[in-house]
Fold:
Amino acid sequence: MSSSALINGLFIFMLAGFIGFEVIRRVSPLLHTPLMSLTNALDAIAVVGAIVLVGEHKSTLSTILGTIAVVAATSNIVGGFIITDRMLKMFKSSRPAAKS
Amino acid sequence: MNEFAGGQLIIEIIYLVASALFILSLKWMSSPTTARHGVWAGELGMLLAIAGTLLHRGMDYQWIAVALVLGTIIGVPLGRVQMTAVPQRTALSHAFGALCVTLVGTAEFYMRTPDISRFMMAVLSMEVILGSLTFTGSLMAAGKLQEILPQRPLTYKGQNLVNFLLLGFAIVIAVYLVLHPEAKPLYPFMVLIALAFGVLLVVPIGGADMPTVISLLNAYAGLSAAAMGFVLNNKLLIVAGALDGSSGLILSVIMSKAMNRSFTNVLFGAFGQVQAAAAGAQEAKSVKSATAEEAAAILSAANKVVIVPGYGMAVAQAQHKVRELYDALTKRGVDVRFAIHPVAGRMPGHMNVLLAEADIPYDRLMDMDDINGDFPQTDVALVIGANDVTNPAARTDTSSPIFGMPILDVDKAHTVMVIKRGMSPGFAGIDNPLYYLDNTLMLFGDAKAFAGSIVRELTGGAHS
Structure:
């Protein structure tokens, strides 16, 4: 990484950190659990790094480690989105009292 | 900036779009009405990013396909767990995320050394140390939450010293590797020490402190992913890592404030030290108890009822009975709301998810700050499986270990009813003066069974 790329990266990190802070501060405490499972799924974007590692097939070690990494990240993506959506589906506003 | 090769440019543009979708995804999470759009935006961004990555030139797809299929097979059941198991599932997914980051970092280390810049080696070390300790720490947390491991904190003398020495040792190795990247044999030791540190960091932490720990591990997982973005020069990864990291950090701060711990206290992992000061001399104080019939009579005569759920409700799986109670009272014209303490349960927002699962409308679920002022006008506060978050000693008793912790002011309600198995103190081992107040009635029994009996009384008591 050249030093200009490094500075670019730091700028991106700083800006994304501030955006994250401002956006997430507004999330209602009601949704803190789904928020955590959603950010967890988004964080599994690390899968792209692992995919390149496996695809380039530079050494046996990198392919093995990369494959396990892709499995771990993919399970987070799939599981994270499924459970977040399941949770959010349950949050309903007041409705006319249902018969019990 | 150097020119991208043709294919690379398309990939970068796709990553740019995916970054925007990720930010929108979190923005839409701000309200329950738009939150599901947030999931869709996230999914679309993820799909684009993965599809874009597959465009890389000269890729060998065989193992990628195997891994994607295997990951999906593992991921689907992890997305279909019971709602009560969400805290341990979350801890487990932090572990998986950290595992991915650590493995990629390790592969990069062996491919790039010794021709690696000092800055890159420093970032890579940070990625791998954070990733390793998050991996084992999260596994420990998941084990405790699943009750495979003891929930009680395991402490020993000099614990903090051992932990600091271990972390210090890992950092010393990292610094040495930055200066001498050719010293490859040292790398595994750095990883092993960080793995051990993760275990020791979470071992002394009790169940009641889990919301803070899970948030903190969330932040670590995000930061390690951002570090990985620097190592791979991948801007999308830096953005996602920064978003996840700030989310975890914000939640950690909220949780630590709700437990009256300073932020440094949280950062250095000094959790679960409240237990030492257990209640000493127990005078025989008298409590008043009531039956389900009496409780039902008081509740149906009330105008305003606030229900305060805690982890005990989750353990007893009482949320559906609580919904029946809510329905029965609402039908009689009683105004029923729920007061949720930020650290009730085992992770941020835990109670909200359980009550939403039981079909209780979310506009009835109130934040601590929004409802505390209403307790003096509340006829009945019904505490179900919550303890320390209702302890008035936190307001008045400077010698109490939880002094200063913000609590739900249930004692200000006209009548307080507490469903509880017995008089044993709560998780933190602190006596709760709430139970001895003149306006408090103890309802002894299992939360689910007792709520069920009250419902039967309210709906006519046909089977009693």
